[in-house]
Amino acid sequence: MPTLILSRNDVKELLNMFEVIEVVEKAFQEWSQGKGNMPPKAYLVVEKGDFRAMPVSLPGTAGVKWVNVHTNNITRGLPTVMGVWIHSDPETGYPLAVMDATDITAFRTGAAAAIASKYLARQESQTLGVIGAGRQAYTQIQAHAEIFKLNRIKVFDRSEAAAEKLVKSFPDYSPRKCTLEEVAASDIICTVTPSREPLLKKEWIRPGTHINAMGADAAGKEELEPSILKEAIVVVDDIRQASAAGEINVPISRGLFTVNDVYANLGEIITGKKPGRTDPEAITVFDSTGVAIEDAAVAGLVYQKARQAGTYPSFNLVDG
Amino acid sequence: MPTLILSRNDVKELLNMFEVIEVVEKAFQEWSQGKGNMPPKAYLVVEKGDFRAMPVSLPGTAGVKWVNVHTNNITRGLPTVMGVWIHSDPETGYPLAVMDATDITAFRTGAAAAIASKYLARQESQTLGVIGAGRQAYTQIQAHAEIFKLNRIKVFDRSEAAAEKLVKSFPDYSPRKCTLEEVAASDIICTVTPSREPLLKKEWIRPGTHINAMGADAAGKEELEPSILKEAIVVVDDIRQASAAGEINVPISRGLFTVNDVYANLGEIITGKKPGRTDPEAITVFDSTGVAIEDAAVAGLVYQKARQAGTYPSFNLVDG
To answer: At residue A169, does pLDDT exceed 90?
Structure first.
């Protein structure tokens, strides 16, 4: 069985947010039940940037995401982050597919936030606030639109042009450019910035708000005033990653928050080991760094759909 | 610039042992000079086998080898080990190529042994003994034939058929099937078996012999009687890997050998930090576990040759 080679356009064509949410939720469930395996990422540092190898398995799926971060790429007209996923058969190790992982990453990040919102936001949530209008903002809106009946979307970005572009991309929802404070007055807030100092002030947050803190993914990054975390019910995707690189990393390093202040991880909420929102007045926070089980789940879905379609290019990569 | 996709046959076509030896020797040199970067492998264990992600950089090259070991594959007619290499531009992170890594692994392993022999065996060595006639045996012979004027090749394998097949593959050298003891009476001995107990006896080894111990690559594996190591000048490819998984791992765990008994690593010999063979009567041993810088060097060579040829398939993998 030759190896499928799926380009960025092919993967885009095969991705469907409704299905992505379904498989990502299932992945958290399986992982929480001890059915997956996710060794620590291996970091390779080079002069101009770095690479991460993220190996992972779930029932029926194994693979590795190889992803770079080169912040100067913008001057060359290349994306900062590019990802390739090798999809392997866990039974034999055979490489079933090699595919672009850029949109897989964006979709699974949106899906994880919407899943967290499903369990942690108030069910009647109607307004979505998005802080940061880069690539990840789009899938936050797409994913939340699958789960909630949104009647208002508010957008903030330091760049007028970026905010304008995002707003124009969702004409069905007539999103509005707003100030930070206006965005903060939403039922659900998603922060998707690379900020290294808090953007979201405690005084702006209304009771009952749910916040998806998606931006922080490295030591030193933070988007929320630590006093928000102190009072909120905090759920993480993975406690090891969150405490080292997620929204809670800076408050922990300053002694303002501890690992014991974390209420649960998302898998525990999904599997019902711990209840999600019980108090309509509570402020809830989902701290996401992005975990490889999400990638594996989505890549597995893309692979299945591509095989079923039977029209994508394949290649005798390791045979012969 | 689209991503090259190179199949196993393409890679085979582009590999040339003379050039491989050249770039692998250079890679050890650069690595020894602190110019490369090789973080520890990330292991992913699944029910039926395991995977390793091996990220690595050298000047001008970065990438990851994703390789599996599934010992039951033989019952399915699939190789136990299959490898894929993603070749990335260290300047931008762009995936320049995805290629089969099976023959890259075999070639670089043969090259590393021949380079060790070049510095550690007697220059006038003429007889090569090969213990184990599996896939790795072929490149041991090819690589040594590039460096030495071989006038006799002796082969041993428990499987008559495997030994026969190897012998017939090198008609120019008229190799001969021999007993273990006969093979041991060679100027250079290469052991390429998955043995978990010593095959090569101390009493068989003549003064002045060089041994490439290539088989042991996991805890518990060994091919030489520990008393050989005790008396020999021992050189390793990488002391971290060798002490954990190489020929010296079992003797170390039994207290029969220590890390301090290792004379040098191969890079130190190549760069002249420590002399190679000085005594014609000495027994020398190269303990090789296989390091990712070897893969990176060979993959870089294959990539350059494929781009120059301009006739290999490429693909808009991450663009769009």
So the answer is: yes
Please, are residues B28 and B267 in contact by the beta-carbon 8 Å criterion?
Answer: yes
CA-CA distances (angstroms) from residue B47 to A58, A89, B95? 11, 11, 30
The token duo for B185 is: 């009476």
- Closest CB to B53: pick one of A42, A57, A102: A42
Give the range of the structural domain holding residue B166, as residue numbers without chain letter. Answer: 110-290
Tell which residue, B249, B240, B146, B151, has the closest CA to residue B195: B249
- All residues at 6 or more sequence positions from B152 whose CB lies less than 8 Å from its CB, including other chains: B126, B127, B128, B176, B186
- Residue A73's closest chain B neighbor by CA? B92
Helix (H) or strand (E) holding A51: strand A49-58
- pTM of the shown model: 0.93
- Domain CATH number, residue A17: 3.30.1780.10
* DSSP conformation class of A152: E
Chain A residues with CB under 8 Å of B51 CB are: 55, 62, 64, 88, 93
ipTM of this complex prediction, to 2 decimal places: 0.92
Express each pLDDT in B245-256 by its tens digit. 999 999 999 999
Same domain, A35 and A124: no
Asked if pLDDT for residue B320 goes beyond 80, the answer is no
User: Can you give B153-186 as a three-state secondary structure string?
Assistant: EEEECCCHHHHHHHHHHCHHHCCEECCHHHHHCC
- Residue B270 and residue B133 share a domain: yes
Q: Which of B103, B318, B319 to mutate to test the interface with A (most CBs of A within 10 A)?
A: B318
B84 and B230 in a common domain: no
Contact B217, B292 (CB under 8 A): no
d(CA B155, CA B137): 9
| Assigned domain for B320 exists | no
- Chain A CB contacts of B81 below 8 Å: 93
Number of domains in chain A: 2
A71 phi and psi angles, rounded to 5 deg? -70, -20
- The H or E element that residue A235 is part of is strand A233-236
